[in-house]
Each structure stands twice: as C-alpha cells, then as structure tokens.
Design brief:
The complex is a heterotrimer, with two copies of chain A and one copy of chain B. Chain A is α+β, with helices and mostly antiparallel strands. Chain A contains eleven helices and eight strands. The longest helix of chain A is centred in the N-terminal third of the chain and has 18 residues. Chain B is built from ten helices and three strands. The chains are: A alpha+beta, B mainly alpha. Chains in contact: A-B, A-C, B-C.
C-alpha cells in the first residue's frame, strides 16, 4: 500500500473536493487513532509529497482515458465526469440542480442592478416605477445582489451591486458579458431630482471618464459602470 | 479432562463438541475411532453432571446415541447385528458421521460469512456529494440564458418609455417601426446579423435604444430568431423560418396573419412613441 | 463515445447503487428528451448488452488494480473502495453505522438457511443439532431472513429464506456468490467403504492421513478440519 493509492481512495470516496491541507489532516487524524507503524508514518507527510502524488494521479487518470478524471478546481481536488456524458447525468440527477427561476419583477430588478450598479433602492424604484422591497429581499437572500456601501448623497442611502453568484447563475464571465453591456448602460434615464443634484455636485463636468462614464445633460444622466476588476469572472 | 469443563460454554451443541473431540484426535473424520470419541464425550457429560452443571437436552440425547454405538461394539462380532453393505441407513455410526460432516461444512461456511461480515465493515461506496460535471458542462450555466435579462430590460424600457412619453425623450429621427423595417432589410442581404453589428452604425444613444427596442419587438413577434451558439459567444440574429411563426391572436400589438408572413410589412406598434 | 463509457459515467455519478433496469431507464429517459441520433439509439439498449458492458467494466477496473473497483451487491452496481483503505475512509466519513456482528450460532443458522433455502426450522435444527428459536428470532428481526411460505409436507411447517438485506450485509452479488455454494447445496453425503469403530482397527498405517485434509474413497469427498477462520478479521 502506498501513499498514492491512499490519496486516490480518499478523493474517490470524498463527498466534496479536498484541498491538500484537508488530505494532510485525514492522514494525520488517522495516524492519531492508529497503532500501525505505517499509518503512523504518514502523519509526517509533507505538502510537497502530496502535490507530487496528486500530479501523478492526475496524469495516470488522464492517460487511462476513462469517463472520469482527477481535477483540481480552485485548489481542491476531486474526481469529475467528462462533459460529454452530461445528457445522461442530468437525467440521473433529475436536473434539480438549479433553484427555482426568478419571477419577472425579480429579473427586472436584477437587470437594473446589473447595468446600473452600484445603485440605490430609490433609483431602482424610479426606473421600475414600483416599490421593490419584497423583490430586493429575495435577491439578497438568493445571494444574487449584495450591499455595496452607502452612496455619497443626501441621506447616504445603501447601494446594491450584483455578486459573483449572479455571474455564475447566468453563466457570465464578467459584467462585460451582459448583453449589449456598453449600449444598455448608457440608456438615458432621468434621475430623481434629489439624486441629480447630489451627483451633479459630485461630478461637475467630466464628459469622458474612462471606466466610469458620466454624462450630465440638462435632464438626462447617463452612467456607465464597467465591471469592477475585483469581480472578474468566477474561476471555475 | 478439566479443560473440557472450562470450554463447555463455547460449544454450540453436541455436534460442535464432537467435532472438537474429533479434531483433537488429529485424524480424518471418516477414520476416527468412534468408540474412543464416544467414551470421551460420555466422560465429559458425566463430569458436568457431577459438577451440578445444567446440561442441555441435546447433549444427553447425543450421549445416549454414542452409548448405543459403543455398546454394539462390545458384543462379540458374531452377535453383532448384520449390517447390509448395500443399505447403510440403519448403521448409527454412519448416521452420526454423516451428520458431523454436514455440520462441519456449515460451520466452515459460517466462518467464511464471518470474514465477509468483517470485510464489509471496511467497504465504503462512492457517494458523490454533488454532481461532478466538468465546469463547461455545468448545467447551472446552460438552462438559463442571458435572454431572460434582455426580456427583463425590454419590460422595463417599455414601461419607462410609456411613462416618459410626454417628455419627448427620443429625437424625431428614429422610430421603432423604422428600425424594425431596417433590421428586416438588413437580414435580407445578410443571413446572419451579429448583435454588435446591429448597433455598429448607431449615431446616438437614442438610436441604440430604438434599435434595441425594435429587436426586442421582432423577437416577441417571432419574426427573427436570436441565438447564442455557445456560452459567452456573440449573439446572432437570423430571420425566423416562416413555418415556426405562430399567429399572435388577441391582445396588445397583435398583427394580422397576412402581415406576419410578409416580412416587408411592418406592423404598427402601439407601444412606442413615433 | 460508447455505451460502456456512458454506463461507467452514470455509475460514477450516481448517489446510490443502480440495477440494470435503472440504468436502462436512464438511457431511455435521456433519449426521450433528446434529438441526438446517437442518444436516441441507446433507447433500445437491451439488458444483455448492459450485463455484458458491466461485466467488462468490472473486469477492467479489477485489472486496473486501483484503490477502487466496481462492485455488484444484490443486483445493484456501485463503485466501492478496497478494504485496505478503510482506516482513512473512516476518518473521512466516520465509522459505518452497522448493527452488532452476528453471533456464532447466528452465523451457522444463517449459513444453513442461505445454502438450503427454502428450509424449515426442523431441518435447521437437524443439521445444527440444537434448537434455534432464539437465533431465528434475531435473524428475522434483523431482516436477514424471512418467511418463504409453508412446506408441502405433513404439518405444513413454515419455511425460511434469506433476504436482499442478507446479500447487502455480506456484500454478495447474489446467492451464487456464496462461498463453496455447490458443495453445500443439497448434495447427499456418500458413505465410505470402511467405518472404523473398535480401538484395534484404528488408523492401521496411513501416515499420509496425518494432516487434516483427506480424500476418502471413490466418492472423493474431501473434508477439511482446519480451524474455521472464525476470528480472523481482515487486518486493519
């Protein structure tokens, strides 16, 4: 019995992806329970040894060319299927992978937040023309939007933005992947008078600002918000 | 045989005890001297009786059987019952040995089951906690498209512009009806229209909005088909095949069927300001 | 892509062991949802094809000699680990919840029922030489044996047989998978030529009988008197 075989067995049986650290902990905890010399000897297994063993396993399984292989996703190792078998696996798992779909008000509110983030509740309501309390609650609970700090305007209202989960849910790499992102962000929307005043003061006259485009017209305000770099696509 | 008394508890029954005595002789079960074994068995029972131990009925039955076998052997050979070689059924020795052999086999089988029982405690089935799809095949990314977002934007804009109608938001140069016409014209010359192409010639933001609204309306009316060949790729607009065009019936913006099949005829859209 | 690869993928991803019938249903339901010609062609997959594919997969994984294998227990297929890795898997998943191990009388009685089913209580007692009331009660309560109707003999006694749980408890594919099944089914034991009784006749001169394994007479009935492997668990 060798370390490689043990690690493979652990990964094959684990219900979730495991990091090197978690694997090391399994070896260590097993050693603590055992009086077997070999089992005890694995307590001192180094991360480099595990990395080496994992690299070998990954290669062996790739070469084996079976319907599954060993993959490392975000530092955690797991056995995964080959994509080509997805049709049968969806049948097998009943396609109950996704949460229920969003309602129409939910989608609309989400769309506004996506294109206008960070955005206050008042702005959303101004665009949608209705109150969004219940809908916002749902979106927050589903983790699709989150708080984005307070706006530097009168009353300092809370602003909202979309989350990484939002990108994952819609299969988007980043906010640039939103349909017609550039164009749609510039669709003119009249701001509520209060906000307009505040914004106008904050940004006197800067016609072209890379990244954050703000055009201030007489009664039209166009705000373009490129995806913040920190939210760059979910690593998969 | 004091050690026998100590071991009494571990015998499952008289056959188990007999097997133990046979095994002590270290000979094959068919070669064993039954008379000697019988003597040992009866001695064993006798000691138990002297020690006032409870003796299970089965042991006493077996003891009497063995005593019968033993007594037969004590008779002179010419007085012994004639045993027909062709019919051994009445030979008590053979009955006992056959029973012992059979019991021994099942005892061994039980031992093998016990090994399997212990082994099975160490067998874990792979139970994946969640579907291990390849990232590309993750169903989370396939069943819901960005078109739902487009639809949502469409609804917002419709209502928004209805509210803003009186404010004369749009420049007079562009109307949704005109844009619908030009998209259809575009598609006549080019089978596939890229989403970005559609907006490439736009000279103002207002035109972009109007173009987009026109596209949404064409999608709604199923005059065009909008597809995304693969995730993250550009959206493509193509003319919808006529046979899949459903006939919009009653309701806002319904269009006479005759106009639907003719792509040159642009329906009047009551939604949008002209 | 071939059927074998698809079946492997399904078994790899399944949350529970699958029977041939369940695998066939996955293929069929996937075909119903699809317009792909190949996927549709699998709708007509026959049980014999699946059995063939499963036998090949089982052999491939056995030959691969990895830390896991494909196992069929009570007609349902699943991937399982090799027993030698149990110490680490117990750390990872916790000890298996299992009822206490069976007693020696329980195992003996169960063995008799397994090989001789359907069998009456009287037959069991005849073989074991003792009453089995308490033991039978335990086996019935644990669901390892069940009633199998009444025998068509005088008194119409109840007969017993083993259950699916019995196969699962011991990790058996089917009743054919019982050790030495042929030998222990209802094969009559034939008497050898000579039966020794008197002291004088005991063991004339056969040094080769010194051991424990002896083939006797024309019937070639082999009896081993080795110690039963009762207490030998697998070394952990």
């Amino acid at each position: 019995m060798e370390l490689k075989s043990i690690i493979e067995s652990i990964l094959f049986t684990s219900q979730k992806p495991l990091t090197v650290r978690e694997m090391r902990e399994v070896l260590s905890a097993t050693a603590d329970k055992s009086e077997d010399i070999f089992i005890n000897s694995l307590k001192k297994t180094k991360d480099e040894e595990l990395q080496q063993v994992l690299a070998e396993l990954e290669q062996e399984h790739t070469l084996a060319g079976r319907s599954f292989r060993l993959a490392c996703v975000a530092g955690a190792w797991q056995f995964v299927n080959q994509a080509e078998h997805a049709p049968w696996l969806k049948t097998l798992l009943g396609e109950k992978v996704r949460p229920p779909r969003l309602s129409q008000p939910g989608l609309e509110t989400l769309a506004i937040i996506a294109y206008r983030q960070p955005v206050t509740r008042a702005e959303i309501e101004q665009i949608r023309g209705v109150a969004v309390d219940g809908v916002m609650q749902t979106l927050l609970e589903r983790g699709l939007v989150e708080n984005a700090g307070r706006a530097e305007v009168v009353g300092r209202p809370m602003t909202y933005r979309t989350t990484v989960e939002f990108l994952e849910y819609f299969g988007l790499k980043n906010l640039e992947g939103l349909p017609a992102a550039d164009e749609l962000r510039r669709i003119p929307v009249t701001k509520p008078k209060i906000l307009l005043t505040a914004d106008a003061e904050a940004i006197p006259d800067e016609p072209k600002l890379q990244g954050l485009d703000v055009d201030v017209g007489e009664d039209q305000l166009s705000v373009s918000l490129d995806a913040p770099p920190s939210e760059e696509g979910p690593s998969l | 045989m004091p050690e026998n008394i100590v071991q009494l508890e571990i015998f499952e029954g008289p056959l188990d005890l007999l097997l133990y005595l046979v095994k002590k002789e270290e000979v094959d079960i068919y070669e064993v001297n039954l008379t000697k074994i019988a003597t040992q068995f009866i001695d064993f029972i006798e000691q138990m009786r002297q020690l006032d131990l409870d003796i299970a009925g089965e042991f006493l039955v077996m003891a009497s059987t063995l005593m019968y076998i033993k007594s037969r052997e004590l008779l002179p050979v010419d007085k012994q019952a004639v045993v027909d070689d062709e019919d051994n059924e009445d030979d008590p020795r053979w009955d006992l040995i056959r029973q012992l052999v059979e019991y021994k086999k099942f005892k061994d089988a039980a031992g093998q089951l016990q090994v399997k029982e212990a082994l099975q405690e160490n067998i874990f089935a792979r139970v994946p906690g969640k579907p291990d799809f390849e990232p590309e095949a993750n169903p989370r990314r396939l069943s819901l498209s960005v078109f739902e977002i487009i639809g949502a934007v469409s609804s917002i804009l419709k209502r928004y512009h209805q509210r803003e109608e009186s404010r004369d938001v749009f420049a007079d140069r562009w109307t949704v009806s005109e844009k619908i016409e030009s998209i259809i014209e575009f598609l006549k010359s080019k089978t596939v229209l890229q989403f970005s192409e559609l907006f490439g010639q736009a000279t103002s933001r207002v035109e972009v909005v109007v173009t987009f609204l026109a596209l949404l309306e064409l999608i709604r009316l199923k005059q065009v088909r909008v597809t995304q060949p693969e995730p993250f790729s550009e959206i493509e607009i193509t003319e919808a095949p006529p046979e899949v065009v459903p006939m919009p019936q009653a309701g806002n913006g319904s269009v006479p069927p005759s106009e639907m099949v003719d792509p040159n005829t642009v329906p009047e859209l009551p939604f949008f300001p002209h």
